[in-house]
């Protein structure tokens, strides 16, 4: 390593350690959970000599002095919009403002504001090499209610990206171009991902098209294996450098890039001339693991880089929009941050208090919770809704069942894909695949991003028809409920021309106990 490079990094490390000390001092100010740290991630990056040039969050301020809007929502009842700000300067999102504004209607996130003052805000992604699913080729906007969490005990919402959802800014200010150095981090839901292309946050092409190797540098999260992979079965934090998802220098495999799926996940990618790194860790506790730190990929086109400086969230550089994920906060920097600076930022993230506990709306059907669905009919109280491949049926599951059988009977509750007041059930061991009905029978299918799929995979819970647990009405056939019949699972009405619509035992067969997940 050249002497000048070592000197620069040493200086950055010293400054970052000073920032970490300032952070600790800030955390000691005040004793209540509503007291924000006086030094937030972008203050720490600035102290390390690598200031933020984009800062996005729907959960909290990323500067200690920031007191502007975090994001904007639009409600469907009258298309009115409202900016959602902070409870106090440097603090946490005012989720109550969203709840009040969006009460009794649905809302989408229309703008994610940039806290740096550079106006690098994110809005609905326009059409590109891949056209979007919404009218005019634009991508869908995220359901504003779909990802509730708490941070320091305060309710907040993330950005829930279902396939077809995407945000972008193609006319930015200060984002790295060419081979200029930069860093970026994001906080994701490490349990919400799929193998689609591409759940990204970071630097992309300014024309929404694939402009060749090295024209991107973005964080990717998921278990796509088309271009490359890490160890295990994924998901992995990788870098989308265009025409490749890279886990390290080898275009196909970096065994040192570990499978990582913390509920709240810190993901980092940074790059400078012929040098880049991937780091990741648990956003709730602990430090960062370096998954790669070395030269650029050895295939052609990535040294030097040809970054263009757009910003994307939830999509690939050419608007590929088949991925899923949830975003809470992230920044992009000018300059290559030192590990010491990033370690101080990680300590700040740990202290922020991301959690799913203490949710103001607790319960087994809270989006993000993991559940199993047990039958209540007298014959079948050891049977759970389960899948084998795409086939869905009820299966006996006990403590002595195999890990595979337990996983097949386990589901993650998501806000309803077609109606956020209802729910969808995502498989715990087939990320991106949901319970959906087709010709009245239930299957496990991958979310294709269509409106039909969203409706078929959305179910509205009610009190159990037999007085036990819950019954689940189909969103698009509201007189039909999830029912088991001869161990198969359908949406069934109480009487009708199909054998599974039989009235006998109907109230029992459509009632399910929502229990702790088997896996």
Automatic annotation (TrEMBL):
Domain Alpha-L-arabinofuranosidase B catalytic residues, every copy: 41-355
Cystine pairings recorded for this chain: 42-52, 102-107, 197-198, 422-460
Can the keyword Glycoprotein be found in this entry's annotation? yes
Gene Ontology molecular function terms on file:
alpha-L-arabinofuranosidase activity
| Active site per the UniProt annotation | 242, 318
Q: Does the keyword Signal apply?
A: yes
Q: Name one Pfam family in it.
A: AbfB
| Gene Ontology BP annotations | arabinan metabolic process; L-arabinose metabolic process; pectin catabolic process
What is the annotated signal peptide range for this record? 1-36
Q: Which InterPro entries match?
A: A-L-arabinofuranosidase_B_cat, ABFB, AbfB_ABD, AbfB_ABD_sf, ConA-like_dom_sf
Q: Which UniProt keywords apply?
A: Disulfide bond, Glycoprotein, Glycosidase, Hydrolase, Signal
Please state which protein family the record places this protein in: Belongs to the glycosyl hydrolase 54 family.
Which protein is depicted? AbfB domain-containing protein
